[in-house]
Amino acid sequence: MVNDLDETIDCLKKFNTPYYQDLFKEIVYILGDANMIIFDGMGDSAKIAEYAARRFSINGFFSAALTDPYQRVSMDGTGIVVVMLSVSGNTPELIRKANDYKAAGSTLITITASDDNTLAKMSDHNISYYVNDVRTEEMSRTTQVPALSIIEILSNTTQRICHNTLQ
C-alpha cells in the first residue's frame, strides 16, 4: 500500500466538513486557554511536534516539543495541554508518556491516522485523519501531510480566535 496524492487530497478536503470544523473549534478553545502546550511524538511525528511548538510559540503561546521517547514525565500538569502525534497511536513509549501526562493532570489531545488505537482511546480529544498506515519492516512511510495540515489549521485558528488577528 502507498499513500497516493488522491488519498491525501481527499483527506484534506474532509477538514472543511462541519464535523472537522466543529472539532477544530472545540480544540482551539482548549489550546487557547492552556498555560502551556506540549507537543510530543516519535520519528516523523517528532518533527511535526517540533514544528507545531514553533508555530504556536510564534503565535504567542507558551509551547514546547518534548520528543525524547524515553524521557520521563514528572510535572504538575494543571493548565497544560499535551498534543501527541502518532500515526499508529500504538507506540509503547508514547502510550507510557501519555499515561504519565494524564496522571499529572494534563489534558491530552491526540492526532492519529485512525481512531482505533490506544492513544486515541485514552485521550480527552482525538483528531483522526484516516489515511492508510504504510509501513515497511523498519519504519512508517505514511504521509505526514494531514498531521501537518491539522497543526496549521489549529495554529492559525487559535491565533485568530484567541488573539483576534489574521482576519
Summing up helix and strand content along with how strands pair, one would put the structural category as alpha/beta
Rg, please?
A: 15 Å
Helical amount among residues, as a percent range? 40-55%
Unreliable segments of 5+ consecutive residues: none
* Helix-strand sequence: HHEHEEHEHEH
For the largest beta-sheet, the strand count, sense and barrel status come to: 5 strands, parallel
User: N- to C-terminal separation?
Assistant: 40 Å
- Beta-strand content estimate: 15-25%
Shape annotation: globular
Arithmetic mean pLDDT:
91
The number of strands is: 5
How many H/I helical runs? 6
Major sheet: arrangement of strands: 2-1-3-4-5
The oligomeric state is single chain
Q: How is this structure best summarized?
A:
The protein is α/β, with parallel strands linked by helices and 167 residues long. The chain contains 6 helices and 5 strands. A 5-stranded parallel β-sheet has the order 2-1-3-4-5, sandwiched between helices.
Polypeptide structure, described:
With 167 residues, the chain is an alpha/beta fold. It contains six helices and five strands; from the N terminus they run ααβαββαβαβα. The chain has helices at residues 5-14, 18-33, 44-58, 92-103, 118-122, 145-163, and strands at 36-41, 63-65, 80-86, 107-112, 125-128. Strands 2-1-3-4-5 form a five-stranded parallel sheet, with helices on both faces. Helix 4 links the parallel strand 3 and strand 4 (107-112). Helix 2 packs across helix 6 and helix 3 (44-58) runs parallel beside helix 6. It is globular and about 40 Å long. The N and C termini lie far apart (40 Å). The mean pLDDT is 91.
